[in-house]
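User: Sequence for ABC transporter ATP-binding protein below. Tokens please.
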Amino acid sequence: MAEPPLLQVDAIDAHYGAVQALYGVSLAVRAGEVVSVLGGNASGKSTTLKSVLGLVRPTRGRILLDGHEIQGRAPADVIGRGVASVPEGRRVFPEMSVHENLLLGAYPRRHEKAAIARDLEDVFAAFPRLAERRRQPAGTLSGGEQQMLALGRAWLRRARLVCIDEPSMGLSPRFVDAVYEVLFRWKAEGQTILLVEQNARIALELADRAYVLQHGHVVLEGGAADLAADPAVQKAYLGAA
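Assistant: Structure tokens for ABC transporter ATP-binding protein:
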């Protein structure tokens, strides 16, 4: 019998006031898997991720992490269960240094001093620009550098599930490549990732499986390679004529 998914989103609805954003959305993420959620603006993909993280309370349905219901729990409770977040817009602490921001990611495992020191060096090796700026206030970094910092902070968490919201948004192609180089490394190391992304081409290259949302509904799901070859996906998201 196959093991149950690490994360199971089961037929959730979500509202912002009187406006319904999600309609019966279901998805699953197995341990060691990368799953992408694709869609255009207002498709519901970020609301799905925020529902997992406890930032939005579903009005119907269930969200299970390791078989335990987490829908409606506070974000701190969800994070405490082994989830890390790389939010849209980075959300670094601008007055704190790069080094201090990274250490915040490791706070739940703060007693593992030797392991944290090794992980910090791994982050600085992966992102040399952060190493050069480790004493700088995070608010002085470029957008691409802040995205690297947000990823590094999640790396220090050593989470069982990393939820990433629009990592390529607003970045130059050079920074997108740098960010995804690290995500491909995480995948190779077996990190479980739930990724929300508008850049469908690179998201499907990274993912094992994907879901496509439109107007709050899941309209397609399947293996990432199969979806990348689907004419409807190519036309809507990959620029095919």
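The two ends are 43 Å apart (CA to CA).
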